[in-house]
Amino acid sequence: MATNHPYKFCFGPWNISEGADPYGPTTRPPQTFDWKLEQLKKLGFDAMMFHDDDAVPDIDTKSAVQIRKEAKELKKKLDDAGLVAEMVAPRLWFSPMTIDGAYTSNDPKCRRYAIDRSRRSIDIAKILGTDILVLWLAREGTYLREAKKGRRSIVLMVEAFDQMLAHDKKIRLAIEPKPNEPMDHAYLPTIGHALAVAQLTRDPKRVGALIETAHCILAGLDPADEIAFAMSFGKLWSLHLNDQNGLKYDQDKPFGSTNLRGAFDQVRVLEQNKYGSRGEYVCFDVHPFRTTKPEHTLAHLDNSRRTFLRLVEKARSFDETAAKKLIAARDYQALDQMVIEHLLGK
Predict the structure, then answer these.
(1) Is 314 exposed, middle or buried (0-12, 13-18, 19+ CB in 10 A)?
(2) In which domain, by residue range, is 96 found?
(3) Residue 106 belongs to some domain of the structure
(4) 4 band by pLDDT with thresholds 50, 70 and 90
(5) Which residue among 59, 96, 169, 327 has the highest number of C-beta atoms inside a 10 angstrom radius?
(6) Is residue 245 part of a domain?
């Protein structure tokens, strides 16, 4: 395993899932949040990421006073365990108020609900000690092009982002793009879209990105290139590493499970651009396979980190001098084989 690495690791409570899918029920019993927190510590992870209702369950039914109270209780649990909160994200895709979208809903009451809940999420983030609010814009899109105006939807999102930025002067918004699912087509499907919209906000310096491996693949893009693109702007503030088998539903497979070379390229670009040097975390947004037995329910998280650290070793031991010579000679066939043999252990 790699030693003296700068990386800190985290996952979320939803990453210990029960195996339900759209076509069948759960296959494992649910576990309590306290149990999940204990496992995170036992596995040697450094932080936990939260949806707002992971931090404060049933958030829509609670007053501002009760939300603050429960957030403070969670902060104490984290402190006692020696852990921190990496980010908070408003879960805006479950509510009946967001059936037609959240910030881009055609109903102004629903848009107001989404913004108000996002503000509450910012308040929770502040109490938990993180300045990152992640925005997975799950329902900001359409099933039907004629149902919404694309340009107006961008304006509505920028207005929502501006209200969040005004609510707290230190919060940073990390947009997590995904091209589809659950919506047919999303308005901000890629990192390029996210960073372009950032420039329209009242404080572009506080609007950046979270990259997820699977989401890049679903967009037909290379995750390593998306990482490099975001880091060239200094805007990669968080990272969800996983894997994906083709252009289908979001699978959240263990990191490196499908495309080991693609995983190597992601780790290599993180190494080259010193990801983590400003305190950023490596998060694994992975799920156990539905067929996983309860006694193996944590293996996907441990395996993802093990793979990541082995690939850190591979990235650091890669002969960059030899690679540069092959690049200069335009001998890309030899470079290709060099990478393959390096990953095979020769």
Answers:
(1) buried
(2) 8-318
(3) yes
(4) low
(5) 59
(6) yes
Residue 248 has what pLDDT?
A: 87
7-21 residue pLDDT tens: 999 999 999 999 999
Do residues 164 and 171 lie in contact, with contact meaning Cβ atoms separated by under 8 Å? yes
On whether residue 339 sits in a domain, the answer given is no
Question: Is residue 6 very low, low, confident or very high in pLDDT (cuts 50, 70, 90)?
Answer: confident
Closest CA to 189 of 146, 236, 140, 143: 140
Write out the catalytic residue numbers.
51, 54
- Tell me the residue type at 164: M
Q: Express each pLDDT in 243-264 by its tens digit.
A: 999 998 999 999 999 999 999 9
Q: Is 323 a domain residue?
A: no
One-letter amino acid at 273 equals N
Helices 299-317/332-344 angle, 10° precision: 130
User: Facing residues of 209 across strands?
Assistant: 175, 236
Report residue 282 as tokens: 């490596």
CATH code, domain with 60: 3.20.20.150
Return d(Cα 41, Cα 9) in angstroms, integer: 11
